[in-house]
Amino acid sequence: MASGSQRLEGRSRPKRKPQVQRNKDKLRLIPLGGLGEIGKNLTVFEYKEDIILVDCGLKFPDDAMFGIDIVLPDFNYILENQEKVKGVVITHGHEDHIGGLVYLLKKIDIPIYATKFTMGLIDKKLKEHGLLTKTTRIIVKPKDRIDIGGFNVEFIRVNHSIADAVGLCIKCAAATVVHTGDFKIDYHPIGGEIIDLQRFAKIGSQGVDLLMSDSTNVESAGFTPSESTVGPTLYNLFRGAKGRIIVTTFASNVHRLQQVIDAAVEYKRKVIICGRSMENVSEVAMDLGYLKVPVNVLVQLKDIKNYKDKELVIITTGSQGEPMAALGRMALGEHRHLTIKKEDMVIISASPVPGNEKMVSEVINKLVELGSDVIYGRFAEIHVSGHAKQEELKLMITLVKPKHFLPVHGESRMLMQHAELAVNVGMNKERTFIAENGNILEIDKRSVQIVGKTQAEPILVDGLGVGDIGNIVLNDRKRLSEDGLFIVVCTMHKGKAISGPDIISRGFVYVRESEELINNAREEVKKALISCEEKGIIDWNSIKNVIRESLFKYLYEKTQRKPMILPILMEV
Predict the structure, then answer these.
(1) Is there a contact between 159 and 183 (Cβ–Cβ < 8 Å)?
(2) pLDDT tens profile 185-201
(3) Predicted local distance difference test score (pLDDT) of residue 18
(4) How many CB atoms lie within 10 A of CB 185?
(5) Catalytic annotation, residues
(6) pTM
């Protein structure tokens, strides 16, 4: 084994099946998402003839994925081995851990194991996709130990920015693996359910072959503050508010919603819940007893005119600046029921997810321009993270005392820093690993080795299409967004042009103000057609290529732009 953190360098070409000799006496672990990225968490655990999955999430597209709605993990390995798959175990109910489930369950029927609140959120998705009655769902509790095929899975309570989150201890005859899930260490959590550090320590004393730990906040020193620290800030803000209070946060953060509702009750305000995801999550949370709302506190948005502004708190979606979310539509003046007023206080009780900073900033600017008082992280302690910082991560490693360490749930720099953190608290460098999505790890009580790689390319979802958009289409969309489209239409008869060329420009130049450029472009096309006639070129693809090359050269010379050129030939 080489010195330093182990890594499989380079990117191998996608394979349908790993070209590696299988050692059935070892536990095989294959991350299909969540490494080198934030989101689409999915890990395969395989021992002999049994497979279990941990989480099945999605990721939201980055700026280069034009028109893409969501990104899924690659399910190929799972589908090729579906007869072995005994179930999927879910650590908590965030979209990056459950958002891909319905897409997998449409292809393969497997049981789901999750805690009560997590299962409530999953049930909403299953019902929406017509899968609720077709899917086996097993509700578990922290401290439960369940046999799934050749695995024993123990659920361990952790704190996170959503209720009912758990870590996992996964055992088989070959090895014991602890998976923290997303976690923080909160000594004063809302609801009083503290992370079960004693159980992590007990499992560590019995021997753990591999620890997989959340890396999201590894770049931040110290400890993550308790969720309960947000409450006093909210109370102070509510005390000074003279008009409506509009609060936006992550819909799944039930503990934050509870603190907002408690503050509203204290200051005798009614609460309106606004936005589809906020309504769905709060409904599940209230039905299952995770969100406690006194009678007559909730009112409907349609009844807003029946109350004075100083009597209202509106909890809304849009904490990430999404233009179609409720707060985004308010900022644009496009919400059907809510218009921002100068007396409004808008509290953004969330931090931007990496990549969303610009959208959040734009919403804040628009709200300020409308005259509202906007409170966000720079000016008040109104949000705390749900992920462990460095000192908590060190404590987890120290308690579990793993033989080997694999940082997960983070971008590449985060994984590297987490591995270095583990070395700083006593881990051997040769026993820390930096893996990539698709890496195949084989584990036993003596060693962990990266032995190969399987296909783990992101699957893009665009509307109803799943996986039908690839790099070629994305590159075309990128070109269209940058330089536009230039369409040339010619009518042909027996290989000769008899009409046209007609030119249509979209996103390149405005035709009416570029007559000389368009007329000269027509002449270039005519020259290209004459050239084809003289050379006896009659194949339409060849003619199109000649037109494309001629136009490309001319347009770039005149404009220094590279529009997508689309020749259309019609036969009569």
Answers:
(1) yes
(2) 999 999 889 999 999 99
(3) 44
(4) 20
(5) 214, 387
(6) 0.84
